[in-house]
Design goal:
The protein is α+β, with helices and mostly antiparallel strands. The protein has one domain: Calycin beta-barrel core domain (Lipocalin). 19% of the residues lie in helices and 53% in strands. The protein is built from 3 helices and 10 strands. It has a 10-stranded antiparallel barrel. The chain is globular, with a radius of gyration of 21 Å. The relative contact order is 0.17.
């Protein structure tokens, strides 16, 4: 019995030591290279857009996005808030408030996009960067419907994002926004240990 306990303790110590070892240099380098490609998103952004929760119900909104690089560039943290005026009133409502984390998986060789919503939902999606467009998608519902979002920089470095929906392979836009960079805040966080 004592020998078994010693073996279990030794195994636990070994696992603990291995967990504290730095990751292989190649994985760190791959992560740095891939995450650096997304630095164009870092900063404070403001603008406007529209969303269509149901066909024919287009709703305009004002948007802010705050994107910070964290863990020495290993992850990007995005916080977005979209507000809309209540028709006929001065009051505003929050249509969307989300916190997302983008990271890179060097073993699977793709980006990960995790979106946390204000209602407690978490959506995890593989993502990709191709020709300057960052894109992620998710399957929804039992019918295999899919949504996809893409972000690219357009004229003057503005952030342009669209959301599309498909149930049969034909894509329909239900979301679009254009944001202007108001500051590059977050650069200091990117390199801070």
């Amino acid at each position: 019995m004592k020998a078994m306990i010693k073996t279990i303790v030794a195994a636990a110590v070994l696992i603990s030591v291995q967990a504290q070892l730095p990751p292989p240099r190649e994985a760190v380098r791959a992560n740095e290279v891939e995450m650096r490609k997304l630095e164009f998103l870092v900063g404070e952004w403001r603008g406007e857009g529209w969303g269509e929760p149901a066909p024919g119900e287009r709703r305009p909104f004002d948007a802010t996005e705050s994107v910070q690089s964290r863990l020495n560039g290993a992850v990007l943290v995005l916080e977005g808030v979209h507000r809309s005026k209540v028709p006929g009133k001065q009051a505003e409502v929050i249509l969307h408030h989300g916190l997302s984390v983008i990271s890179y998986d060097p073993q699977r060789k793709h980006y990960r996009f995790e979106a946390h919503q204000m209602d407690g939902r978490l959506e995890e999606s593989p993502a990709r960067l191709s020709n300057g467009v960052f894109e992620w998608s998710a399957r929804e519902g039992p019918e295999g419907a899919e949504t996809r979002f893409s972000i690219r920089l357009i004229d003057k470095g503005d952030w342009h994002q669209i959301g599309e929906f498909s149930q049969d392979g034909n894509w329909k836009k239900f979301f679009e926004m254009t944001l202007h960079r108001v500051s590059s805040r977050g650069e200091a966080e990117r390199r801070r240990p």
